[in-house]
Amino acid sequence: MKTNPTQPAPPKAEANRYVLQLFVAGQTPKSVHAINNIKKICEENLQGRYELEVIDLYQQPQLAQGDQIIAVPTLIKKLPLPLRRIIGDLSNTERVLVGLDIRNEA
Amino acid sequence: MTKPKSTPKAKPAAKSKPAPKAKPAAKPRPQLPKAPTGIQGLDEITGGGLPKGRPTLVCGGAGCGKTLLAMEFLVRGAMQYDEPGVFMSFEETAADLTQNFASFGFDLNDLVARKKMALDFVRIERSEIEATGEYNLEGLFIRLGQAIDAVGAKRVALDTVESLFSGLPNPLILRAELRRLFLWLKDKGVTAIVTGDHGEVTLTRQGLEEYISDCVIVLDHRVRDQVTSRRLRVVKYRGSTHGTNEYPFLIDADGISVLPVTSLGLQHIASNERVPTGVARLDAMLGGAGYYRGSSVLISGTAGTGKSSLAAHFAEAACRRGERVIYFAFEESASQIIRNTLSIGIDLEPWVRKGLLQFQASRPTFAGLELHLATIHSKINTFKPQVVIVDSLKDFVIGGNENEVKSMIMRLVDFLKTNQITGLFTSLTPSASSLEQTDVGMSSLIDTWLLLRDIESGGERNRGMYILKSRGMAHSNQIREFLLTDHGAELRDVYVGPEGVLSGSARLTQEAQKQAALMIRDQEVELRRIELERKRTTLEAQIAVLRAEFAVQEIASVKIIGQEKAEEAQLAQGRVDMGLSRKEDATASKRKSGPK
Q: Distance between CA B297 and CA B303 in Å, rounded?
């Protein structure tokens, strides 16, 4: 699991780190679920070269407009480009990896 | 941070259930509270505005004015009713919106700066989005909630919420979330407009009407005979009566105006005031005073019989009285009318410059009937004229829409009458059809109907005019010849002879003949008079002769009598003398003298 993505990753890994933001609304079970999911995926695939910021929109509602958040949970891949939004509780690991450009479309 | 957080969240989560309960509790009030839209006409149709504190669905096809309606509702709310608003756009950016609505005179930047309005553009890029499981729209709720709190919004517009369906996966979740959104809006007590695109089977593409059922307004932009017209219909309005018809509406420089142009019933007050027609002899024909103020006048006739000229006369006469006139021209441009009427001695231009006369020239095909009617209404409402001229109605009849034209004219006539405006319409009658049949069968709507016709005789074509009807006044039943001279229209008597109605040169001939006949008669009378005089003189002479003869005879007779008396006396004397001479006795002489 770890080796597969790291092999195409090294050139990227040096150039770009992964900058991820996860927007949730409150500590609902779904939020907690999503946070756990992304943390697991990052640890397994992007160990050491990612930044993950979890933002609770109830705490910082003004960010919803700036980052064009409609649905929650939303995971935004700010870097590397292109920008991607991954909506949902991130339970489908395959789709998350595709969304993060870690794995090519299966 | 905690405060803004708790406000948006606490409400939707906690009250999404009690919300529907809270509303019915507020319902039993006699009158449903309403939020006035400030849009001309819409408040009349809805009986005061949109349902306050509830969402209203506005749906319709592309380009039918949904966004404008929503925006105008917010802007007017912010400016006129002190109800700030939030406009959440899913289609246009805030910058685009600002620019687009600047042309309607809505300064969105200013409203935003004064915290009267918040604009939020929700961008959904399908290509950026990857779905990985269940989600909800809490982000949207938070954004909206924050914007509402920031300006203290009482009004919200969501334009077009259906864009979410193309951007986000899993429609089932979306539907559930939208339902929750509308309940949440209700719960927040904001009056909301939600727009939706026209669907094929349902009112909106995504069937939003299932969730928003308090008030549904459908906008329509339809094409008929290559002419479009915009219409608005209130499909449902819970807890309130509303106008149910399709009402035409206009989008012009001031935004939307809806015109509830149905017949308002026959409630108008009839004026006794008379308005001169501008042609003195026509006034004389119309009971000596002209039309009634506020009546409807139809001038119909075949081509080139002077309908527009009569209309121009009336317009000029009204301007001279200081009244305001709108001339809706559908055949000629304003300058053409001015030029043409100048040739018959009517100068309209000074009145245009004075602002008493306004021309509204357009081709009938320029817009649909309803739009024309709406335009006429709006022009009349702004200009407030006393006289309205429509030249000509015939132009509206395109294809087989006579019934529609009739209903349009009926509404126009009702509108004019209600406002005590005298309406003068011209209508072209095709030469083939009966003269008294107008194309639109509008006789029943018309108070005074002048018919102009051409009279063909003796190789000439002349104009004739008569009054077909004129309600409420004694009017002439005679045909007049109608002349267009360089000093205006003139009416002349016509002659009805064995060959029919005489006009033009035939009339002139007839006039000459009449003149000659008159002269001959005069001469004959003179002759008779002289003859009589002569007879009298003769008779008098004869009388004198007879009298003279009589006098002579009388003298002669007197003379004879005298002679005879003298003779008798002489005889008597002779006898006495004889007695004396014969020595008769005295007694005898006495006896003799006794009988003497």
A: 18
Distance CA(B593)–CA(B596), nearest Å, equals 5
How far apart CA B169 and CA B166 sit, in angstroms, is 8
* Number of helices followed by number of strands (H, E) in chain B: 17, 25
Collect all residues with Cβ–Cβ distance below 8 Å to B95 and sequence separation of at least 6: none
Interchain CB distance below 8 Å, A92 and B132: yes
Beta-sheet strands, E only, within B418-494: 422-428, 448-457, 460-470, 480-485, 488-493
- What pTM was computed for the model? 0.65
Mean pLDDT per block of 10 residues along chain B (596 residues) reads 42 42 49 84 84 90 86 90 90 88 87 89 82 84 89 90 82 87 90 86 77 85 76 87 81 76 62 87 86 89 83 91 91 89 89 90 75 82 90 72 75 84 85 56 80 79 84 84 83 70 75 88 94 95 94 94 93 88 64 51
Any A CB within 8 A of B142 CB: yes
Domains present along chain A, CATH in parentheses: 16-99 (3.40.30.10)
Test B140 with A58 for CB contact under 8 angstroms.
Answer: no
Query: For B144, left (φ over 0), alpha (ψ -120 to 50), or beta?
Result: alpha
Name the CA dihedral angle for B96, B101, B103, B107, rounded to a multiple of 10 degrees: -110
Contact between B447 and B297 under an 8 Å Cβ cutoff? The reply is yes
State whether residue B14 sits within 8 Å of chain A by CB: no
Q: Which helix (H) or strand (E) holds B535?
A: helix B504-582
What is the rounded CA–CA span in Å between residue B138 and residue A87?
Answer: 12
| Collapsed DSSP state (helix, strand, coil) of residue A21 | strand
How far is Cα B65 from Cα B53, in angstroms, rounded to an integer? 23
**Identity of the residue in B128, B134, B139 whose CB atom sits nearest the CB atom of A64:** B139
DSSP letter for each residue of B165-225 = HHHSS-HHHHHHHHHHHHHHHHHHT-EEEEEEEBPSSSSBTT-GGGT--SEEEEEEEEEET
Inter-chain CB proximity B132 and A96 less than 8 Å: yes
Six-digit token string for B399: 């294809």
Between CA A16 and CA A9 the distance in angstroms is: 10
Residue A48: both structure tokens together: 């050491």
Nearest to B370, CA basis, from B486, B474, B238, B225: B225
Beta bridge partners of B236: B216
Q: How far is B136 from chain A (nearest CA, A)?
A: 5
